[in-house]
Write the structure tokens for this entry.
Amino acid sequence: MSKVAIVTGAGRGIGRGIALKLAKELDYNIVVVDIDEESASSVAQEIKNVGKDAIAVKCDVSNNEDVERMVEKSFEFGEVDAVVNNAGITRDSLLLKMSEKDWDMVLNINLKALFLINKAVCSKWVSECKKIAEDLGEDRPAPSAYPKRKIVNISSIVAKGGNVGQANYVSSKAGVIGLTKTIAKEMSRYNVNCNAVQPGFIKTPMTDKMPEKIINKFIAAIPLQRMGLPEDIAGSVKFLCSPDSDYITGFSIEVDGGLDM
Ligand SMILES: NC(=O)c1ccc[n+]([C@@H]2O[C@H](COP(=O)([O-])OP(=O)(O)OC[C@H]3O[C@@H](n4cnc5c(N)ncnc54)[C@H](O)[C@@H]3O)[C@@H](O)[C@H]2O)c1
């Protein structure tokens, strides 16, 4: 039976690239999660067109009721083995002009949502592990007694050094790194690996709205002299979901063309 991966924010951009790569190259069926139902359905159809199964689930990842419903649906769909927390937003402005509303919105979608989703999914995995331990008649078997599970959280390269106009976004993405390391430590006894990816400057609808002058300034600072593509990020997520990374946890991969060496 094919394994299932949940990918949030998969209706477009990096999330869409990740969903398609996991389906095509790692044989995953995909739960395509997005707040925009139409784009989620269209990506689910693209996945079916390449011969894998997919469901589209409309979900605001910052809303706990939505998250619990989405996680239930995902486990009904199949055996969830991987979660990629990719949905994210920006609401940029300088600190002195930033509203509390924009601070809360970015923190809720970019960070709190990962707490909600990872908690809901890990709780299912831990219940399964407890049954396995019971069947084995052991209190605390070695992690290898359980199925291997993967969590990949999408952070950002700006979490390392900060970024003007992005106090909310940078704080959320730095929080993602702390959350990733903590989940890695807490969940390793259940054979769950939790890692992060820190994209640099990637061509998606999120960056398409930036002025051309600013885009060119960014590109000039990238040693590989181009913007990244969703496929560049999808490649590292694929690695972190594959058996090749089974001994890596609590780690973050920077995929930024050398921007922050
Ligand atoms: N594009 C970049 O340069 C870049 C760089 C570093 C990190 N990232 C991160 O990568 C991730 C994807 O970015 P992208 O560029 O593809 O963005 P994008 O704006 O193109 O796509 C984001 C997707 O998330 C969905 N989404 C937004 N809010 C949601 C919510 N509350 N619930 C569910 N879905 C929601 C959107 O509908 C959209 O489909 C984000 O976490 C972003 O912060 C992007």
